[in-house]
């Protein structure tokens, strides 16, 4: 069986797949915060004897790499961006400099929606908004502070603005109180970047993923689907093409 791991800036997501399963078809999955990383040993234990391979995307630094290497039931294959993989060509100026999670997310989206021009928005600690052509070219994208970082930055760097937490209820665009006005502005900035990318590509479909996706997707005015584990889907799709 195959273990898939996506180590992001805040959480580590994982899934276990049986041989021959289609990308996204998993028998187990989960997610932990970095502080709870040691709990992965217990989560993976029921599958440890059957796991023959682990594929890991890690953008959380060397310390995270070392910890995951120690926890994984088998020596991991560390997923990296490359010039071409599984029919998707990487048009980044220096292909290997593209974040592994962005490349995997784009590959996952293309696997689930082949032949479509795609905008792939992953909305986590940072928000990334990337474009994939109908022919399978990863064209590049944008990186901006995530919704939580935007909200926190206003509270930390202004004298009178409060810390506001994002909820599932959208505020009015033209809010009549400061808390809602902050949230409205930050959501508009996030959604505006995604919608601009969709208009300029133009996109057949927008794929939205990440921890803040449920807070941003309701404000989007473009056709979209929410896929929370799109990086894991990409790792799964990449597995047959990796050494």
> What is the CATH architecture assignment of the largest domain?
2-Layer Sandwich
First-last Cα distance:
16 Å
What general outline do the C-alpha atoms trace? globular
Determine the strand fraction and express it as a percent band.
25-35%
Commentary on this structure:
The chain is an alpha/beta fold and 243 residues long. It folds into 2 domains: 2-78, Nucleotidyltransferase, domain 5 (2-Layer Sandwich), CATH 3.30.420; 114-234, ATPase, nucleotide binding domain (Nucleotidyltransferase, domain 5, 2-Layer Sandwich), CATH 3.30.420. It has helices at 40-44, 62-71, 100-112, 147-157, 178-200, 213-216, 230-238; strands at residues 2-7, 11-17, 28-33, 53-58, 77-78, 84-85, 88-90, 118-123, 126-132, 137-145, 205-209, 224-226. The strands form 2 sheets. Strands 6-7-10-9-8-11-12 form a 7-stranded mixed sheet, sandwiched between helices. It has a 5-stranded mixed sheet with strand order 3-2-1-4-5, covered by helices on one side. A hairpin with a 2-residue loop joins β6 (84-85) and β7. The longest helix has 23 residues, at 178-200. It starts with a strand and ends in a 5-residue tail after the last helix.
